[in-house]
Specification:
- The chain is an alpha+beta fold.
- The protein has 2 helices and 7 strands.
- It is globular.
Length: 150
């Protein structure tokens, strides 16, 4: 019998950021995440990849390094989708694809703010610890984003 805890391999975290869409969207570029996410020490383009491939290396303050590949970008619909293609140390799961979406809040109490949604879809070998860690990191990064644009 398996000792794995059954868990969903998809998560979505969200926040209302009290800044207009253009101010928030300006930071939602893989190479600019270090401008708001306090766990990152730097984010930089990886040199030597093909001109059609947009790969950025995120270096975290704990020395973890992730190479993230931009899979999709829409300046019209205000979202990016990226995957992790390499990690040091190695990941304990096969893959993850994440999307950050921004929506203008156009009415109500938070009119003029931005609703940000950050989702992730992990491969089936990701365990409950991986999923909860990702959930926590996204919540923390969204709080950092709110602070960065305040």
């Amino acid at each position: 019998m398996s000792s794995r805890i059954p868990t969903s391999t998809s998560i979505t975290e969200s926040a209302v950021i009290q800044a207009n869409l253009s101010k928030v969207w300006h930071l939602i570029k893989l190479q600019d995440f270090h401008h708001f996410w306090t766990k990152l020490s730097k984010s930089e383009h990886v040199k030597g990849t093909s001109p059609e491939t947009d790969i950025v290396k995120w270096t975290f303050k704990d020395k973890t390094e992730l190479q993230v590949k931009l899979e999709e970008h829409s300046a019209i619909d205000h979202f990016i989708t990226y995957s992790i293609i390499d990690a040091t140390p190695a990941l304990s799961y096969s893959s993850v694809v994440s999307t950050v979406r921004c929506y203008a809040v156009t009415s109500g109490q938070y009119e003029g703010s931005t609703f940000v949604q950050w989702s992730a879809h992990f491969s089936s070998d990701a365990d409950a610890g991986v999923i909860e860690d990702a959930r926590f990191k996204r919540k923390e990064a969204l709080a950092d984003l709110a602070s960065a644009v305040a």
